[in-house]
Amino acid sequence: xxxxxxxxxxRLVKLARKLRSKxxxxxxxxxxxxxxxxxxxxxxxxxRPVDNYIVDFICCELWLVIELDGYSHLxxxxxxxxxxxxxxxxxxxxxxxRFWDEEIIEDIDGxxxxxxxxxxxxxxxxxx
Length: 128
Known about the structure:
Layout: H1 13-20, H2 25-34, E1 45-50, E2 53-59, E3 64-69, H3 76-91, E4 95-100, H4 101-106, H5 108-126
Parallel strand pairs: 3-4
Antiparallel strand pairs: 1-2, 2-3
């Protein structure tokens, strides 16, 4: 089945590479569970440009984005930026799920259950 290419700004590739080398603890923990097709054989990538943003994790095959939020996301300006960003990603056809850093650190099993559920939901919806 044909899937359109997810658009990205090539000027963000260098910054994304830099961000991959400066991962947060929650990103490192989650990455250990997402890489190498560990979630039903689907490949995830981290710190990837999508449109004019860099997303924390993406599975292109499922059009699924996982975003991790720390305390800075509680600030009013950042909260509004997150809302606009998520709206734009959804407009592109992506499914976006969000977790707080603390959820990853304190309850990785619960987070993985949610991700697995969404992966299976997307697989069914997209008939992948």
